[in-house]
């Protein structure tokens, strides 16, 4: 090296330091790094050793390269399709706060860091400007030069491309399942995702049985959403107003599938129906009658036939009002501007009591009525009995598997760890099946009790109706005459 070159490397004269550009940087004696690990789903986090493998590989890489590990992030499931991840954001914020001249983010592979393609490229550049480099254990790339940066950016783009391909295949698979009548998403409220003999299915649970009542109340009684929510809460099920509205409008409950992937089409589902299509449509017709934000006085004890009787002329429901000067109640149709149907509440109630008396069960027909109810119950519960048989069969098969497993363990054919693993799995599945059996089983003694009680009620219909409050009168009316009644212009009789 020439004398001239040596002199050029020496410090310039004293007093010129203040003219030098660029701040003084904090130079670390050793390279510092942080480790980030992740998997995409909860099942991956709980069911395999990927997170542990990633962390171990990253730690070994750091030790091999002499890196000082400052902290570890991740260790859980986060989708790399978005950079709005809790652990990921903590990682980035931590790195930016260190303000070191050099810092490495060590990941097992670049797709563990991000699968957002162009956004990952932008973020990696922002980090490099801060002296922070992304280092992959399985894809060693030197990003201190343009060629290395280009190579890393290409890998980021390929990760996004791979993600987009997976998404495309997933969507195509979901659409195919929907067209076959199979729901590919999580079960809605009132249903459970179950597996029977290796086949995935969706079954009605206890919440579903309560939600069935909500549809019946809406369709037959026309009560408000507030009243439905209150009744459900009294029976142990809390549902928000918005959620309840979504449930009533979801055709899944009547066996129909509706999804954005079907592009406006409806498909008959293969899952167990909670209610009939007729009940679903009727409930939504009633729901549409009361606009949002409108307070209807539904519970006037003096007007129990509201929403139950329609005008024969305009086909609208009758509503009630009071003539305050006479303190008398009247019914009139909703379409008052074009129809003049108007009748005294006292007169209409008297006529309705006559009709109830005509349908009251006579003592001579009680045995015949009970026999018919038993036949109806048997017919309607055929499907339930089929499910019950499947649950019992599966429970028995699991019990046999547990017994065989215990026998093999006693005979030292399998080790303790395998025995514990599969014993726990089989017992958990059997408990699930037994729970479904208990939910589905309906004792014959209870059936007879309900049949006898319904016969007693039908023999006392007139007195029951007159002595009941508004809610019970509505229940009684709609249980006997589900479609209500039509009132002619000249009030001489009512027509169902």
TrEMBL record:
- Keywords per UniProt: Coiled coil
Q: Does the keyword section mention Coiled coil? A: yes
Q: Which domain of life is it from?
A: Bacteria
**Pfam families attached to this UniProt entry:** Recombinase, Resolvase
- Tell me which Gene3D superfamilies the record gives: Putative Large Serine Recombinase, Chain B, Domain 2 (3.90.1750.20), Resolvase, N-terminal catalytic domain (3.40.50.1390)
- Give the Gene Ontology MF terms in alphabetical order: DNA binding; DNA strand exchange activity
Name the PROSITE patterns on file.
RECOMBINASES_3 (PS51736)
Its protein name is Recombinase family protein
Give the taxonomic lineage as stored in the record: Bacteria, Pseudomonadati, Bacteroidota, Chitinophagia, Chitinophagales
